[in-house]
Specification:
The complex is a heterodimer of chains A (107) and B (307). Chain A is of the alpha/beta class. Chain A is built from one helix and eight strands, in the order H-E-E-E-E-E-E-E-E. The radius of gyration of chain B is 18 Å and the shape is globular. Classes of the chains: A alpha/beta (107), B alpha/beta (307).
Amino acid sequence: MLKLTSLVAVALAGILATASHAPAARPASVGIKDFTYGPAVLTVPVGAQVTWTNHDEESHTITSTTGAFGSAGLSHDETFTQTFARPGTYAYFCALHPQMRATVVVR
Amino acid sequence: MDRMDRRGFLQCAAWTGAAVVWTAAGGVLSSRVVTPVAAAEAPAGAFSFVQISDTHVGFKGQANADATATLQQVIDRVNALPTRPAFVLHTGDQTHGQKAGAFDTVAELLKGVKVERTFYVPGEHDVFLDGGKEYLERYGKGTVGGRGWQSFDYKGAHFIGLVNVLKYKGEGMGALGDEQLEWLAKDVGALGNSTPIVVFSHVPLWAVYPAWGWTTEDAERALGSMRRFGSVTVLNGHIHQVLQKVEGTVTFHTAMSTAFPQPAPGSAPSPGPMKIPEAEARRMIGVTDVAYVPGRQPLAIVDSTLG
């Protein structure tokens, strides 16, 4: 029992350490399903890493409207990760299906 | 119809391409039904060609475990046609997302088609990664300014291959652009009104379903250059299913994919590949055989499936 308690304490300490040292690096994610990015607007802190996962059979891309970042075609279950170092509003779309549009807001 | 013999029916079918297409879309007719007529009775100047579209080599998923294998089956089907087609038109999306090596695989497979040559236009899957660099390096030669669009004459008919996927960005639909439209107007300018015109491009040149990007925003300007002609046949791909529309003297036709079917416009939450049992899917992928007989309009367009 003592052992278990200490394990929990260690685990908690780990979480607290992560939370206190790098709050901005908490991973955020966007899913792609039925030709839609979800969420359509994702708000993250400066320094955040955003990971997109394609759940469709069709390939999709994450392509910045300004050319600031961009992925290759993601097949089913493939991912793409981008770190946002500066605040701003980043619009992106799918280069294969340009009607698919979404935004990352970095604060 | 009940008093018409087989020969009469086949002549009728060859003349009214639209009826054939719709019947074929229901899985009843195949190209083998119509082509014997062309072989036996084709007048001078008659010929046929084949449209292959949306081969999507590199795609792997529940909708098709091996898009290379289904392309090979389509090629075998083309080579087995009783009348050898003059050439192949590939209406784009050769590759699935420009997967590494996919262009090479398609080129290697298409070497096996028994035709004089193959003409290409790009699909968005062939150009989205590099703005068309690799595609134009391979297929730009002999096209206008190396830009991918072109025209040629074959036995009295005028063929025009248009590129409507290079201005795709942010628009949600295909576009031709001013430069190409101006070239097109000049290209057809000297032709007589009776010259049969065949236009081929990847994204449909009519508004099939704009919400899914199944349209070309400046297609109307292109069609404006061609309205005076007695016979215009527009062959497109992109939507992985057979749809046809007749508008005056212009017949629009979209081809099946050789890889996987897509849902009818608006019938699903998204236009993604249809995941259906293999046997059923084989009835929804295939190839288009087009017969041109001088003096008869429009062209006879016959879609045949793998299943």
